[in-house]
From TrEMBL:
Residues 28-52, 75-95, 149-174 have a biased composition (Low complexity). The keyword Coiled coil applies. This is Uncharacterized protein DUF349. Residues 441-468 form a coiled coil. The lineage of its organism: Bacteria, Bacillati, Actinomycetota, Actinomycetes, Pseudonocardiales.
Length: 655
């Protein structure tokens, strides 16, 4: 259908409460046009050439002014049911469309109609803490005024049946925290642009008061298009920090500030270079078209702020944010929106700079991570090379290689070329270690085979010696075989255990036989010991007064001692000591008798007496001759010989 035709379906009148709910949902999704009421009207706008299939209002029946119409209440089950919260769906569910209302009567009929009694709005509860998923920025831009029909700085004219009540201007709540507006006598002026309301959050649950549905009214006659009151628009995404970033005003709060619409429906936006056409609006009142393009600007601003929020939170890809911001900035010259394009471009310049810095920081972080990963893999490769060259604890070194490989697989972020070079180092070291270990165990197998052959020989010889009765030499040979067994080394465990069992069995058999033989011999030796003890008692009774008889008795006892035989080893020394004592006793008696009967000793005593007598005679003769000196010398010599004589006599007497 042509855009200039005068036939079409008139735009339905939406419920104001449903409009606000859908606006909140639109803000939550950040899409704007896809979730707000009147999407069929917005689809009719084109820039600059509009679609031929767009719905166009008939010439004589413009869209009735919502401010002049009585509020249309949704029936239960379609709109806000009693007892359910009137907050928008945070999950972004599609809004439920209101039933089509009856055609609105003319203004005079509307004035004559009985007004619906206003429903008092409950007090707004305090805003709860805002979840991170619903807060786009830390410091949001103040929401636009809810009251339709006037700019933010001017109060709208009172409409007893269609005006919406705003929150108090002293503490404006974000759109998501405001209760469903109730009719009131007058609107409150909007808060100033620089006000900083609390962070928006989901509204508390509260029941919505039921509203009676008004009776149907006849359609009003055609009249000139009235100035439509702007609908409550979704608040833009909050700005991260208004002091650090450029502040961009919400266009839907005052579309006329940023653009205009002429009588033919052509929409203009004001830019730094002047005005330019952004589209044409033929589906309703021109002011609605201007508001539509302002909402599109708000959607674009919301998208920009969402990009900034994700960038600040670190939850998105900086490259994607950078490309998206550049794409939006490059399209501003041809954007079909009405709003603060200069401020938005400045905001995009800041976002592009921040995203570019974030991309650089991410690149630096990746480079640092890559350097750390390369350093770690180089350290692992170096450790592997040391193990490959020096390790001799094969079990521990093999386990370490496994742990190095497991850690190697967890290290990421290295370019392919460097990673392949490092992997070649590690793989080469591991292969070298495996070769060394294989060579070691091959040598060990050869050694075990040689040890097995040698131990088989030793076991065979031990089995041959097991039946020997030559106890001493055989026992000594078994000791030598044990030393050779230990020097042969270890064979394979099962073979080594089997050979050891053979060797040990032969050895145990020999020493068991020897032990039995020694036990019998020990019993015989014990009897011999008792016999020798009895013989010693007899020997100790020998009378030594007659040395010759004592020697004869001792000789007989010694012969009997030898005939008795061996005694236990621990009895040998005590018994031999007692026998030696008897032998010494008899020998001492014979020595004493010989000393008493020695003639040489008697002759020596007689000689000493004779010499004493000679010196005494010489002394007497010299004294008689008056030779005193010679007399004293002779007396002295005689005294010396007397002492010798006394000693000799004493020795003879004590023999």
């Amino acid at each position: 259908m042509s855009e200039h035709q005068g036939s079409g379906t008139p735009e339905p009148v939406e419920d104001r409460t449903s409009d606000q709910e859908q606006v909140v949902r639109t803000w939550a999704h950040g899409a704007g046009a896809g979730a707000e009421p009147g999407a069929d009207v917005e689809a009719a706008a084109t820039a600059p050439a509009f679609d031929a299939d767009s719905p166009v209002h008939p010439t004589g029946a413009p869209t009735p002014d919502p401010a002049d119409s009585a509020p249309v209440t949704q029936p239960p089950g379609v709109g806000d049911a009693p007892g359910e919260p009137a907050a928008p769906d945070a999950a972004g569910a599609a809004p439920v469309p209101a039933p089509p209302p009856a055609p609105a009567p003319p203004s005079d009929a509307a004035d004559a109609a009985p007004p619906v009694p206003p429903v008092p709005a409950p007090p707004a509860p305090p805003a709860p803490p805002v979840p991170e998923a619903t807060t786009a920025h830390a410091d949001p831009v103040p929401p636009p005024p809810v009251h339709p029909g006037a700019p933010a700085a001017e109060p709208a004219p009172a409409a007893p049946t269609a005006d919406l009540t705003q929150a108090p201007a002293a503490d404006p709540a974000p759109l998501g925290d405001r209760p469903v507006p109730a009719p009131g006598p007058a609107a409150v002026p909007a808060p100033p642009q620089d006000a900083r309301p609390p962070v928006p959050g989901p509204p508390p649950a509260r029941p919505a008061p039921p509203r009676p549905a008004p009776p149907p009214r006849p359609a009003p006659p055609a009249r000139p298009a009235p100035q439509a009151a702007p609908r409550p628009e979704p608040a833009p995404a909050p700005v991260v920090d208004p002091l650090a970033h450029s502040s961009v005003a919400v266009a839907s709060a005052d579309p006329g500030r940023w653009g205009r619409v002429d009588a033919e429906g052509t929409i203009y936006v004001r830019t730094a270079d002047g005005e330019r056409v952004v589209g044409s609006w033929q589906a309703g009142a021109p002011e609605e078209g201007l508001a539509h393009f302002a909402r599109r600007f708000d959607d674009m601003l919301t998208e920009v702020e969402l990009l900034a929020t994700r960038l600040a939170a670190g939850g998105g890809d900086p490259k994607h944010t950078l490309s998206s911001a550049k794409s939006i900035r490059d399209g501003l010259d041809d954007a079909t929106v009405v709003g603060d394009l200069v401020g938005l471009r400045a905001r995009l310049d800041e976002l592009v700079a921040e995203a570019d810095a974030a991309v650089g920081a991410a690149r630096s972080a990746r480079d640092a991570q890559r350097s750390a990963a390369v350093a770690r893999k180089e350290a692992l490769a170096a450790e592997a090379e040391v193990l490959a060259a020096e390790a001799t604890q094969w079990k521990q070194a093999g386990d370490r290689f496994k742990s190095i490989l497991d850690e190697w697989r967890t290290i990421r972020g290295i370019d392919r070329k460097t990673d392949e070079l490092l992997w070649k180092r590690f793989s080469k070291a591991r292969e070298s270690f495996n070769r060394r270990r294989g060579s070691h165990f091959a040598d060990l197998d050869r050694q075990r085979a040689a040890a097995k052959a040698r131990k088989e020989e030793l076991a065979l010889e031990a089995e041959k010696l097991a039946d020997s009765d030559d106890w001493g030499p055989t026992a000594a040979r078994f000791r030598d075989l044990m030393a050779e067994w230990k020097a042969a080394g270890r064979a394979q465990k099962e073979a080594d255990d089997a050979l050891w069992q053979r060797f040990r069995t032969a050895q145990d058999a020999f020493f068991a036989r020897r032990s039995d033989t020694f036990a019998e011999r020990d019993a015989e030796f014990a009897a011999n010991a008792e016999a020798k003890k009895a013989l010693l008692v007899e020997a100790e009774r020998i009378d030594t007064s007659d040395p010759a008889a004592a020697r004869a008795a001792l000789r007989t006892i010694q012969e009997r001692w030898e005939e008795i035989g061996k005694v236990p080893r621990d009895e040998i020394r005590p018994l031999e000591a007692r026998l030696r004592a008897v032998e010494e006793k008899v020998r001492d008696a014979a020595d004493r008798q010989w000393q008493r009967t020695d003639p040489e000793a008697e002759a020596r005593v007689a000689q000493f007496r004779e010499r004493v007598a000679q010196f005494e005679a010489q002394a007497e003769k010299a004294r008689a001759a008056g030779d005193t000196r010679r007399a004293e010398q002779a007396e002295s010599q005689a005294g010396q010989w007397r002492e010798w004589l006394a000693t000799a006599e004493q020795a003879v007497q004590h023999r």
